[in-house]
Design goal:
Blueprint lengths: L5 E2 L2 E2 L15 H13 L3 E5 L20 E3 L5 H14 L6 E6 L2 H5 L2 H10 L3 E7 L39 H6 L5 E6 L3 H12 L4 E7 L3 H4 L6 H10 L6 E4 L2 E4 L11 H5 L12 H26 L4
Parallel strand pairs: 3-4, 3-5, 5-6, 6-8, 7-8
Antiparallel strand pairs: 1-2, 7-9, 9-10
């Protein structure tokens, strides 16, 4: 009997060898595995300083079946711009040029280069694997760290031991650039992730895919809870799954209201919210904030779907 090429919409092909050096329960490792299944072998990766610059292993060993450029922290947007234009000059249009960076290298240190690359409309796919802090260098706060989360560089006091500012909305920043395609994804919904990567491959110009990637040591959860936490991020509306294409928003994974979970169910599985959970008023505030953001997303979906674009 012939072996099926796909299992529940997930390609069987592997472009990521076993033997990597990621932590147990690393969401970023699973994110790469699923993304490469969709991208295929004709892919070139540019990876700045981040967890993923060490996950493939120590030279001469490697766990990647595709070419990888290890690059400085702040230049992912510039490097993939150059690679894309080099392939275009050679008439090579069937190669995926991919930037793969963490939140520090995307929403903070690499934002200037990414902004310029999107504004110039180079043809690439940029992946943000978002573990919500500078995990590779010691769990320092980033612009993507959510409000209420502990890190090693958030203020510590008698009553407050968490980040006070809300998470930077990198998706809306790039939508404001007029990006042709942007999507959110998690490893808990791999079919959704793979569909979005495949769609991005069909669109010319800059594309951005934001993958929530739980970090076991940084989020302080058991490694076997990584997928469950990813799923809860969606079921609590903390991280809704949607796509933005040519001016229109669309929710891709709709959660029935009877299955929606309170935000506290997501928070209590993560040790980084240990101190926050002691403040009932703050937990209620975050619940209201999540609800407001989701309602705003629904209004964007409704408004843009009715536009004749």
């Amino acid at each position: 009997m012939a072996v099926e090429e796909k299992v529940v919409g997930i390609p069987r092909s592997e472009h990521f060898y076993q033997g990597h050096v990621a932590c147990k329960g690393c969401g970023a490792a699973l994110a790469m595995r699923f993304a490469l299944k969709a991208l295929g072998p004709k892919t070139v990766l540019a990876i700045p300083a981040c967890c993923w610059s060490v996950i493939p292993g120590i030279f001469p060993n490697r766990t990647m079946k595709v070419p990888v450029f290890n690059i400085p922290f702040e230049v992912t947007g510039a490097v993939i711009s150059g690679i894309s234009e080099a392939f275009a000059a050679q008439g090579k249009t069937d190669i995926n040029v991919v930037g793969w960076a963490g939140d520090g290298g995307t929403v903070d240190i690499g934002l200037q280069a990414l902004s310029g690359a999107v504004e110039r409309r180079h043809n690439f796919i940029y992946f943000l694997y978002d573990n919500e802090a500078y995990m590779n260098t010691g769990i320092q706060r980033s612009g993507s760290t959510p409000q209420g989360a502990w890190t090693t560089t958030t203020p510590v006091g008698k009553t407050k031991m968490w980040k006070m500012e809300p998470k930077k909305n990198i998706d809306e920043i790039l939508i404001a650039h007029g990006i042709p395609y942007l999507a959110t994804a998690t490893i808990a919904f791999p079919e959704d992730l793979i569909k979005k990567v495949k769609k991005a491959q069909t669109i010319k110009g800059p594309k951005f895919i934001h993958i929530l990637s739980p970090c076991q040591p940084g989020w302080k959860h058991p490694p076997e809870k990584t997928v469950e936490i990813s799923r809860l991020a969606v079921y609590t509306k903390v991280f809704p799954l949607y796509e933005y294409e040519n001016g229109k928003y669309r929710i891709t994974v709709k959660i029935p209201e009877k299955k929606v979970r309170p935000v506290v169910d997501y928070l209590k599985l993560q040790g980084r919210f240990k101190y926050l959970l002691q403040d009932k008023e703050m937990v209620e505030y975050i619940q209201k904030y999540v609800d407001r953001q989701y309602e705003l997303l629904l209004k964007k979906v409704e408004f843009t779907q009715n536009l004749n674009l």
